Amino acid sequence: MRFSKINILSSNGLFIIVLLGFISAVNIGCYSKADQIPVLFFVFVIIVDLFIVGLIIWGLTSKITISNSGIRYKSMFKDLTIDWNQIKTFGVYITGSNVKTVIEKTDYDKFVLAGQKNIFITDKEDFSPSMFKIRPNSEFKYIDFHYRPKAIDMIEQKMINKQLSAPKNGL
Which of 58, 108, 126, 148 is spaced 20 to 30 Å from 91 by Cα? Predict the structure, then answer.
């Protein structure tokens, strides 16, 4: 299973499209009145435009691949793979109002009004995304991406198979 890290039909994806439309309207308005606006403002608008285009390109080129060997995150700047036997913690969390809350399996398919559901996978025991305000860099392996029912089902199935095939100690 291969997909973009950002789901374009999610609330974040739709927000990016609306933001791009707003920025385009501002640009058209600025360039139509170019003789009345200071040059410094044009420089600011161009910098903001380049930044937004860069973020959109980065978001659309970041890919998640879930295969029989593990989960791989690949972007322009990073390539990270976590094998199934390395995964210690996984789940779904909701972001909203700068707060991250891990939700129970029964709440995975419930609608979230003021937040975004994401799946997280890490090789650290007892991890919770609420431990960090920003994504951890190199302390341990960590991948997160927008929630997709098929992806979490596949991850849960692989983890159940991993537990069933683990050697039993003491027998």
Answer: 58
Categorise residue 141: left if φ over 0, alpha if ψ from -120 to 50, beta otherwise: beta
DSSP 85: G
Tokens of 67: 């295969």
Among the listed residues 43, 83, 77, the one whose alpha carbon sits nearest the alpha carbon of residue 63: 77
Which residue ranges make up each domain of the chain? Answer: 2-61, 65-165
pTM score: 0.70
HSE-up of residue 34 (Cα within 13 Å, Cβ side): 6
The CA-atom distances, in angstroms, between 11 and each of 22, 54, 88, 135 are 16, 20, 29, 20
Interatomic CA distance for residues 158 and 163, integer angstroms: 9
Can you give the pLDDT at residue 83?
Answer: 92
Q: List pLDDT tens digits, range 85-124.
A: 999 999 998 887 666 788 888 888 887 776 788 889 998 8
